[in-house]
């Protein structure tokens, strides 16, 4: 879909209330394949966009902030005729979900925050993100992908789930270095979402892999403590991508959560 001067890839399948899934870095919408298939069969209109700079969406070099990503998704949903939706995101996608809720709280019917962090970027983290961005532009994605894979997935899952490992590695290696670098520079300016979390007035589910090194269980527990009446699910044997490492457990947690979401007064139509 074309929005202004940019083109955005996305997948939309199923009917019913919209469930919007936001991928992490450095991935694309295919990371949600098990969830797209599962929830579209269970009465949800699942929409999974490629963020700018990723997948089939336009690459914009420079810096892409979380607000820019959030406004892109809002614009896409406007074009699709979606006013309100349940919103899920993993890692950077979870931060984008928090930014969408900050900007457009009246549109969000429920929040699923998976393997993400709500705190502002640290001084050391800012330096590291800029250094990584520079390295990606110099050397490309391949070395970065090889380096990151043992943290994205648990080492045990890499051995026992070779198809999943290959999929995750492929997404990382096929990501545009310019797009990934722009996102890293934007995340270096990540704000502190902790003050926003007590203001969340919709059902919320926080999920984390028990072995996540990037955003450990303690990060999830903090988010869970601050969002009123939120639920917390820790998925054993998973690292940073429990939706792919333990899809059945992940989908079950989300499905139980979605049962809490009140039905809309009228189902939104397509445009």
From TrEMBL:
<dbReference type="InterPro" id="IPR029058">
    <property type="entry name" value="AB_hydrolase_fold"/>
</dbReference>
<dbReference type="InterPro" id="IPR000073">
    <property type="entry name" value="AB_hydrolase_1"/>
</dbReference>
<dbReference type="InterPro" id="IPR050266">
    <property type="entry name" value="AB_hydrolase_sf"/>
</dbReference>
<feature type="domain" description="AB hydrolase-1">
    <location>
        <begin position="18"/>
        <end position="247"/>
    </location>
</feature>
<protein>
    <submittedName>
        <fullName>Alpha/beta fold hydrolase</fullName>
    </submittedName>
</protein>
<dbReference type="Pfam" id="PF00561">
    <property type="entry name" value="Abhydrolase_1"/>
</dbReference>
<keyword id="KW-0378">Hydrolase</keyword>
<dbReference type="GO" id="GO:0016787">
    <property type="term" value="F:hydrolase activity"/>
</dbReference>
<dbReference type="InterPro" id="IPR000639">
    <property type="entry name" value="Epox_hydrolase-like"/>
</dbReference>
């Amino acid at each position: 879909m074309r929005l202004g001067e940019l083109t955005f890839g996305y997948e939309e399948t199923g009917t019913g209330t919209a469930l919007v899934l936001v991928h992490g870095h450095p991935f694309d919408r295919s990371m949600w394949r098990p969830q797209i298939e599962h929830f579209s069969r269970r009465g949800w209109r699942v929409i999974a966009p490629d963020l700018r700079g990723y997948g089939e969406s336009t690459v914009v070099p420079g810096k892409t902030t979380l607000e820019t990503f959030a406004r892109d998704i809002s614009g896409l949903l406007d074009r699709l005729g979606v006013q309100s939706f349940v919103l899920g995101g993993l890692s950077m996608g979870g931060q984008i979900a928090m930014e969408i809720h900050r900007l457009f709280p009246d549109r969000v019917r429920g929040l699923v925050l998976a393997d993400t962090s709500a705190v502002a970027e640290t001084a050391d983290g800012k330096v590291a993100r800029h250094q990584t961005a520079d390295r990606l532009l110099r050397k490309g994605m391949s070395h970065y992908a090889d380096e990151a894979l043992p943290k994205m997935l648990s080492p045990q899952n890499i051995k026992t789930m070779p198809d999943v490992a290959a999929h995750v590695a492929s997404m990382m290696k096929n990501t545009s270095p310019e797009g990934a670098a722009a996102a890293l520079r934007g995340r270096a300016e990540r704000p502190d979402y902790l003050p926003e979390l007590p203001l969340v007035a919709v059902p919320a589910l926080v999920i984390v892999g028990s072995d996540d090194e990037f955003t450990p269980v303690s990060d999830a527990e903090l988010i869970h403590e601050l969002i009123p009446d939120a639920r917390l699910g820790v998925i054993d044997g998973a690292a940073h991508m429990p939706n792919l490492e333990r899809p059945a457990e992940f989908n079950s947690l989300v499905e139980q959560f979605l049962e809490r979401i009140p039905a809309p007064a009228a189902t939104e139509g397509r445009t």
